[in-house]
Amino acid sequence: MSAVIENHHDDHHHGPAKGITRWLYTTNHKDIGTLYLWFSFAMFLIGGAMAMVIRAELFSPGMQIVEPEFYNQMITLHGLIMIFGGVMPAFVGLANWLVPMMIGAPDMALPRMNNLSFWILPFAFFILLSSLFMEGGAPNFGWTFYAPLSTTYAPPSVTFFIFSVHIMGASSIMGSINVVVTIMNMRAPGVGLMKMPLFVWSWLITAYLLIAVMPVLAGAVTMMLMDIHFGTSFFNAAGGGDPVLFQHIFWFFGHPEVYIMILPAFGIVSHIIETFSRKPLFGYASMVWAMLSIAILSFVVWAHHMFTVGMPLAAEIFFMWATMLIAVPTGVKVFNWVATMFRGSITFETPMLFACAFVVLFTIGGLSGLMLAIVPADFQYHDTYFVVAHFHYVLVPGAIFSIMAAVYFWIPKWSGNMYDERLGKLHFWLSFIGVNVTFFPQHFIGLAGMPRRYPDYALQFADWNMVSSVGAFLFGFSQLLFLFIVVKTVMGGKKATDQVWEGAKGLEWTVASPAPYHTFSTPPKVD
Amino acid sequence: MNKEAKKTLTRLVVAVPLMFAFGFALVPLYNVFCEVTGINGKIFQSEHNDKFISEEGRPIALQFISTNNENMPWVFKPSEQVMEIQTGKYHSATFYVKNTTNKKMTAQAVPSVAPSNAAEHLKKLECFCFEQQELMPGEEAILPIRLLVSNELPKNIKNIILSYTIFDITDYNDEALAHHQMDME
Fold first, then answer.
1. How many domains does chain B have?
2. CB–CB of A181 and B8 under 8 A?
3. Measured between CA atoms, how close is A470 to chain B, in angstroms?
4. Which domain holds residue A112?
C-alpha cells in the first residue's frame, strides 16, 4: 500500500515514472499490487457504508430510514461490492506484491496484462454503482441474483449489472492466468513446488479455481442477458426453461467462489502464525494437500445452497456428505495452526492477534457451516439470519481479518516504516469486539426464525437486532482507524529493518525495506 | 517469456472459453438429467407401454391443481379437483380453459408432480401440455389428459398432485417456440 517507494537505490538504473502516468501505465507488480489494495480499501469503505445503512434500518423494528426498495438495493450492492470489489481485489493485490518476491521472480509473467486487469476494475464498479442513480434503481435481487428476480422482475439497470460482472470476471481471469504462469514458470532455481511458501500455494490453487468458475459465471449472466433482451428462455418456464437451473449454474460458480475468498487467507495466516510462534509451520505438506482437497471438493458441493428447491433425497444426501467431508481438510489446517503455536515462543503483535482471531472465529463460522450442511436442519435455517451469521463469520473475521493481518504483517516491507503498534492493537480489539457483537447475535435471531433480506422484522427480534447494529457501527467506524493507521505508516514512522520480524523467514524478507522498485532482477540462490 | 511459460499461458487461455462453453453445456445436461431421473416433474413425453397396465392395482387419489402464471388472464381449471383412480389403469381427465381477452392468444401449460418421487411413475399417454393452445377471443376449450400411474409407485404414496401452470406465450418469437417444441418431442 506504499505510495512512497522512492528511487534511491543506486543499483537499479530506473525507478517509477513521475506523476499520475506512473499509475496509469505501470507494469510493475508492486505498483499494481498497491493499486489493487487501495482500490479494494475504497470498495471496502463503500460496501461498509452500505452495511451501515442496512444496520441502521434494522436498529429497531418498523420502517425507519430508507424505503424497502432502496434497502433491497443496499443488500445487493453490499454483497457484490464486498465480494468482487473488496475481498477479491485485495487478495489479487497481495498476490501481486508478494508472489514474485516470495518465489524470487523479478515481476509477474505478463506485466501488461496485469495493468489491464487492474484498470478495467474501476470501470466495472463505476458502472455498477452508477446504477444507483438510474431510473428503477440499482439491482435489488440480492447478490445471488436468482432468476426470475434478476430477469423477468429486474429493474432496467440489470443490463449494466451484467456488463459490470462481465468486466469483473475478465479482470479476475486475467489476474489468475498471470498468477499461474508466474508461479509455474518464474520460480527462482531451487524453489521446488513443495518448497513454495504457502501463500504462493494458496494462490496457485485459487487461480485455478478462478479460471474454472469465473467463465461459468460469465455464462450465467450472458444467459440472463439473452433471456432479458433476445427472447431466449434459459430460465423462463413459459418458454421451456427452468429457474432452478439458474441456481445450479450460479452455485456451480458460487461455491468454488467461497473458497476463492478463503484459500489465500489460509496462506497468509500460515505465514503469520509460524513467524510469531518462531517455529517452522507444523505439517507443511498436509497444508498443501488440505488446500488441494478443499479446492477439488468445492466442485461437488454446490447444491447444499439449495436444499429447499425440491431435490431428490439421494441428491440431498450426496451433497450433505460431500459438504461434511470438507470439514476434514479444514480441520487438518486448524489443527496444524494450533500445533504450530503449541510450545512456540509466541508474541502477540497486531498481525498475530488478527491471525489468532482468524483461527478461532473462522472455526466458529465453519461449525455453523456444518450445521447448515445437515439437510433436515437446513430446512429450518435456510434463508434466515443464521445463514447471514455463518457467512459473515467466515468472510469478515475470516477473509477480511486475514487481509488486515497481511497488511500489518507486510506493510513495513512495502513502506519501509513500522506501523504504530498501539494503534494497531486498538484497531484489532475494536474490530474483534465489533465483529462478534455484530454477528454472534444473528445466530440467535436466525434460529428463532428471522428471515434474511427484509427491511423489517417481528418485535421479538428487536433486542438482538439492536445489539447487532451497535456492534456493526463499532466495527464499521473502527475501520476509519485502520485507514488512519495505514496512511500514517505510509507517510512515515519508525524505520523497519530488512527482516522486520524476528521470526520472519522467506525471500521477501531478504530484500531491503521498503522493497526496491525492482527486486530479484537476477534470481536469488535458494538451497 | 520462455517457451514453458508460453505453453502454460496457451493452456490457460484455451481453458477459459472451454469453461464458458461448459456453463452453457450445463443447460442440456440439466434437462437430460431431469428427464432420465424423472425429477422436477418434467414429463414432456407421451409414454405408452403395455407393461404398465395391470389388474392388481391399488386405489390412490389424484388431485389436480391449476395455476395461472402472472398476467395470464385466461380461466384455467380442472373439471374435477380429485379423482379416485387405480394404479395400472388408464384414466382420463379434463381441464377447462377460456380466453377471456379480446385478442388471439397462445398458451403453454407446464406440468409438475408432487411428491417428486411419484413423477417417474406417472405415465401420460396424452396431455394438452405436449402442445400449445391457441384460442380466439372468448373461445373456450376442454383440454384432455390421459394417464396411468404404474404399480411401481412407492407404497407410502396414497395421494398424487398433478399441477399445471399456464403461461402466456403469445409474444414469444418463433425460434423460442421451435426450440420448445423440440424439447417436447
1. 2
2. yes
3. 42
4. 20-509
Cα–Cα dist A359/A398, whole Å: 8
In this prediction, residue A304 carries a pLDDT of 96
What CA–CA distance (Å, rounded) separates A159 from A136?
A: 12
How many domains is chain A partitioned into structurally?
1
Q: Indicate which CATH number applies to the domain containing A86.
A: 1.20.210.10
Are A25 and A17 within 8 A, CB to CB? yes
Which residues in chain A are closer than 8 Å to B42, comparing Cβ atoms?
242
Which amino acid is residue A463, in one-letter code?
Answer: D
3-class DSSP assignment, residue A143: coil
Burial of residue B3 (number of CB atoms within 10 Å: 0-12, 13-18, 19+)? exposed
This model's pTM is above 0.90: no
The answer to whether residues B81 and B137 belong to one domain is yes
Residues 6+ apart with CB under 8 A from A139: A73, A76, A77, A80, A128, A131, A145, A150, A154, A155, A157, A158, A161
Q: Residues A337-365: pLDDT tens digits?
A: 999 999 999 999 999 999 999 999 999 99
- Domain membership of residue A477 (yes or no) is yes
Q: In terms of C-beta density within 10 A (0-12 exposed, 13-18 middle, 19 or more buried), how is residue B81 classed?
A: exposed
Determine phi and psi for A244, rounding to 5 degrees: -65, -30
Residues B18 and B88 in one domain: no
**Structural domain includes residue A191:** yes
Q: Which DSSP category does B6 fall into?
A: H
Angular region, A5: left φ>0, alpha ψ -120 to 50, beta rest: beta
What pLDDT digit, counting tens, does each position of B112-148 carry? 888 877 887 888 878 888 888 888 998 989 998 888 8
Cis peptide before A397 (omega within 30 of 0): no
Angle at A110 between CA A109 and CA A111, to 5 degrees: 105
Are B20 and B107 in a shared domain? Answer: no
Helix (H, G, I), strand (E, B) or coil at A142: coil
Crossing angle (nearest 10°) for helices A121-130 and A158-185: 160
Considering only CB atoms, which chain B residues are within 8 Å of A216?
Answer: 19-20, 22-23, 26
Helical residues (DSSP H) of A230-242, grouped into ranges: none
Burial degree of B36 (CB within 10 A; 0-12, 13-18, 19+): exposed
Inter-chain touch B9–A109, beta carbons under 8 Å: yes
3-class DSSP state of A382:
coil
Asked if B27 and B66 sit in the same domain, the reply is no
Do B52 and B128 lie in one domain? The reply is: yes
CB contact under 8 A, B169 and A238: yes
Separation between Cα atoms, residue A314 and residue A312, nearest integer Å: 5
A223:B24 CB<8 A: yes
Question: Would you state the torsion angle of the CA atoms of residues A526, B3, B8, B12, taken in this order, to the nearest 10 degrees?
Answer: 150
Identity of the amino acid at B153 = L
Is B54 found in the same domain as B4? no
CB A501 within 8 A of CB A276: yes
Q: A1-21: per-residue pLDDT in tens?
A: 444 444 444 444 567 888 889
Residue A147 DSSP one-character state: T
Q: Which domain holds residue B136?
A: 44-184
Closest CA in chain B for residue A186: B5
Q: Which stretches within A278-343 are classed as H helix?
A: 284-297, 313-325, 327-341
Residues A163-199 have pLDDT tens digits of: 999 999 999 999 999 999 999 999 999 999 999 999 9
Best residue of A184, A226, A253 to probe chain B, by most B CBs closer than 10 Å:
A184
C-alpha span between A375 and A353 (Å, rounded): 35
- Both B31 and B72 in one domain: the answer is no
The answer on B25 and B100 residing in a single domain is no
